[in-house]
Amino acid sequence: QVQLVESGGGLVQSGGSLRLSCAASGRTFSGYAMGWFRQPPGKEREFVATISRSGLSTRYADSMKGRFTISRDNAKNTVYLQMNNLKPEDTAVYFCAFAKGPSVSDSGGMYDYWGQGTQVTVSS
Predict the structure, then answer these.
(1) φ, ψ dihedrals at 25, nearest 5°
(2) pLDDT tens, position by position, 78-98
């Protein structure tokens, strides 16, 4: 059974940093792209970042470029999201997800397994 477990969320002041981790099991991790999405309070889920199975290709939402970095360690079956210069509008539940294939995608429909999410709250 496929499982994704996020960790690393919390409360941080504006301008601060957090590193989210997502540990995967139940599927050959290195065979699939991974993604991070978020859902701000009262809003729809939105794309954050994605990384190909090899880690050589990444893609970010425009508002995260230059502040967020996605990476993966295939030996540890883990994907990370380093978030710097956080802003109050980054407050959301952050989810990691397994893509259906090896390539990056910013569409939620291209992901078939999702974690439970981790809360990130940025205070002003």
Answers:
(1) -155, 160
(2) 999 999 999 999 999 999 999
Question: Average of pLDDT values for 19-25?
Answer: 98
Could you tell me which of 25, 117, 7 has the C-alpha nearest to residue 76? 25
Q: Report the alpha-carbon distance of residue 99 to residue 114 in Å, rounded.
A: 9
pLDDT at 100: 96
Name the 3-class secondary structure at 90.
helix
Rounded CA-CA distance 12/14 in Å is 7
Please list, in sequence order, all residues whose beta carbon lies within 8 angstroms of the beta carbon of residue 48, skipping any fewer than 6 positions away. Answer: 35, 36, 37, 38, 60, 61, 64, 68, 70, 81, 94
* Pairing state between β 78-83 and 10-13: unpaired
Asked if 68 and 83 count as a contact pair (C-beta separation under 8 A), the reply is yes
CB within 8 Å of 75: residues ≥ 6 apart: none
